[in-house]
Design brief:
single chain, 10-stranded mixed beta sheet, 39% helix, flat, cytoskeleton, nucleotide-binding, Kinesin_motor_dom
């Protein structure tokens, strides 16, 4: 399987009002032609600037439109072909991550990556020929390491992460919402955006206090030239990460400080995952260290095309944070992913939809005749998806359960005259009538499918009628009369769930689509050529060139020597900086270890004082046994420990009566202790 590197671009925003008021100086410069970013240390002006090379570099005068067309467009196009894709923005708080992902509605050139991806997806869907798509959206956030559904009925409910051998890590109970156009996608995103956790800090008045992931899931049903159908599935994750922050700059206290701590921990876990993936010697990748890294597991080293947008502040007072972001991004571009087209997904809902559409059309064709059915379908006024959506509850109240929908489709619904079942070909497993409960019928495709294999029970052929709709021609085992209005309503509802091919004849739109693809490819070639022709990348031509005079050769080689010396000094400074940072991190880690050791000793001493007071007939009196029976739960991040139990010892009946007769005090009834009553001193009868 071919591998490809994670694509990384950097974007530097303009100075904000706060930085201008502090008289900050710019320390970031960009060479967009070569995709290079330079960072000058404000405390060491004599040192050469630090240099980083990426797949793209954009300065304050570049618009989001250019970033999308040059870098993001090929990735989103791949999703419409059946690949998985992830785009995420990273950077310190207030560096422009949400602006890059969400953008502004006006001017149009500053619309964010997310709304542009919506337009792109539905443009590709509308241009496709002989292809149908089922497009669904979900929106979640990770707040204080809790996963929440931003489109759910209860946006504060904590959801669990689960792992499936085929579909990987997923969120149990996350709502999925079918969307038919860009406007519906934007309304769904807006509804979720209002539920996001944001708060005021000194760095940003609307600081994101959570990581958010907007996911577009696409199921693709295509028919090739031979009439054979193919099913694929793509998924686009649009991730807006909360920014890393320092308490001294943000002024965070109380709840804001707790949020910042959780944010920094998850971003640190993300950095550790990136470092482990880049380090070829590391055998363990710590994906389970945070909810964020678990959800992005496939995007980092897995079956996904990934793009990282590193957002920078140009100000000198953010030098340390900007340098950290650039190093973070520089490591990420070395990650190798293994993207592949997701062929024939097992849990595809679109397959279920298409099979029921076949069955319903076959039922109607049996009752009405193929020509009448074609005329009726062509005369039906399709419901406007926007209007139909307005009749429904708002997105927060719409929770689509995929498994429940599949079960509904598989059920054989009695349509005015007894059960109707489908058998034959691939649809047979989804709707067989019980023995003796009605006739059997095969329903074949209404959407450009190949004729079913012989022999057939009730279908003799599949032919195309005058309006181009393929219908099943039934001859045997006539069905009872069905409620045509119910069948038509169900058929229309199912067909409205899928989209595709609405602009297949629009040559202008298709040409525009091809032009955008060519532009992205040409920009990539230009960047590669610029790097190859860069004088700073190689000095071989200086050494191999034939000169007209000794003076010319001395001049050229002196220039080359100066460049190499500058590179050497920059490398030495970088090594010194990394060693200094390593020492600081080492000191920080050692301080953390010492603090944890002190906490451990405190708990150990408390336990030694408390253990003798625990009742002897309680299972917690044997702590060594409790330790052996406890286990760590990776999913929840907590220890599973045994419940406290009081072990009752019953005396023989004779001894009880003897004690009762010989005792002057009344016999106390059998005393039931509560679960937390572990100490004998709490019981007045002991």
């Amino acid at each position: 399987m071919a591998s490809e590197s994670v694509k990384v671009v950097v974007r530097c925003r303009p100075m904000n009002q706060r930085e201008r008021e502090l008289n900050c100086q710019p320390v970031v410069t960009v060479d967009s032609a070569r995709g290079q970013c330079f960072l000058q240390n404000p405390g060491a002006a004599e040192e050469p600037p630090k240099q980083f090379t990426f797949d793209g570099a954009y300065y304050v005068d570049h618009f989001t439109e250019q970033i999308y067309n040059e870098i993001a467009y090929p990735l989103v196009e791949g999703v419409t072909e059946g690949y998985n894709g992830t785009i995420f923005a990273y950077g310190q708080t207030g560096s422009g991550k949400s602006f890059t992902m969400q953008g502004l509605p006006d001017p149009p050139s500053q619309r964010g990556i997310i709304p542009r991806a919506f337009e792109h997806v539905f443009e590709s869907v509308q241009c496709a020929e002989n292809t149908k798509f089922l497009v669904r959206a979900s929106y979640l956030e990770i707040y204080n390491e809790d996963v929440r559904d931003l489109l759910g009925a209860d946006t504060k409910q904590k959801l669990e992460l689960k792992e499936h051998p085929e579909k990987g890590v997923y969120v149990k109970g996350l709502s999925m919402h079918t969307v038919h156009n860009v406007a519906q996608c934007e309304r769904v995103m807006e509804a979720g955006w209002k539920n996001r956790s944001v708060g005021y800090t000194l760095m940003n008045k609307d600081s994101s206090r959570s990581h958010s992931i907007f996911t577009i899931s696409i199921e693709i049903y295509a028919v090739d030239e031979r009439g054979k159908d193919h099913l694929r599935a793509g998924k686009l994750n649009l991730v807006d990460l909360a920014g890393s922050e320092r308490q001294s700059k943000t002024g965070a206290t109380g709840e804001r400080l707790k949020e910042a701590t959780k944010i920094n921990l998850s971003l640190s876990a993300l950095g550790n995952v990136i470092s482990a993936l880049v380090d070829g010697r590391c055998k363990h990748i710590p994906y389970r260290d945070s909810k964020l890294t678990r959800l992005l597991q496939d995007s980092l080293g897995g079956n996904t095309k990934t793009l990282m947008v590193a957002c920078l502040s140009p100000a000198d007072n953010n030098y340390d944070e900007t340098l950290s972001t650039l190093r973070y991004a520089n490591r990420a571009k070395s990650i190798k992913n293994k993207p592949r087209i997701n062929e024939d997904p097992k849990d595809a809902l679109l397959r279920e939809y298409q099979e029921e559409i076949k069955k319903l059309k076959a039922i109607l064709a049996q009752q009405m005749g193929p020509s009448n059915l074609s005329a009726l379908l062509s005369s039906q006024v399709p419901l406007n998806p926007v209007q139909s959506e307005e009749k429904l509850a708002p997105p927060s109240a719409l929770q689509s359960d995929t498994e429940a929908e599949k079960q509904l489709i598989r059920e054989v619904r009695p349509l005015a005259g007894g059960p109707v079942a489908g058998r034959g070909g691939e649809a047979g497993s989804h709707g067989e009538a019980e023995a003796g409960q009605g006739p059997e019928v095969v329903a074949q495709a209404a959407v450009a499918l190949e004729p079913p294999p012989e022999p057939l029970l009730a279908v003799t052929s599949v032919r195309r009628d005058s309006v181009g709709v393929e219908v099943a021609v039934l001859t045997d085992k006539l069905l009872p009369v069905v409620d045509q209005e119910r069948v038509l309503a169900r058929l229309q509802l199912l067909e409205q769930q899928v989209v595709g091919g609405e602009q297949a004849k629009n040559k202008d739109l298709k040409e525009k689509h091809k032009r955008r693809k060519r532009y992205a490819d040409e920009r990539k070639k230009q960047l590669v050529a610029a790097l190859q022709n860069s004088d700073e990348d190689s000095g071989d031509w200086v050494l191999l060139n034939v000169y007209d005079s000794i003076q010319e050769e001395v001049w050229a080689k002196s220039k080359l020597l100066e460049k190499m010396q500058r590179k050497l000094r920059a490398a030495e400074v970088e090594i010194k900086d990394l060693q200094s940072e390593f020492q600081l991190e080492k000191i920080d880690y050692l301080a953390t270890i010492r603090r944890q050791e002190r906490d451990f000793m405190l708990f150990q001493q408390l336990l030694e004082q408390v253990q003798p007071l625990i009742r002897r007939d309680c299972n917690y009196s044997n702590l060594e046994k409790i330790r052996r029976e406890s286990c760590w739960d990776e999913d929840s991040g907590f220890w599973k420990i045994p419940e406290p139990i009081i072990i009752k010892t019953s005396l023989p009946v004779g001894q009880v009566l003897a004690r009762a007769l010989s005792s002057a005090s009344p016999v106390f009834p059998h005393h039931h202790h509560s679960r937390c009553d572990l100490f004998g001193t709490q019981c007045p009868h002991l």
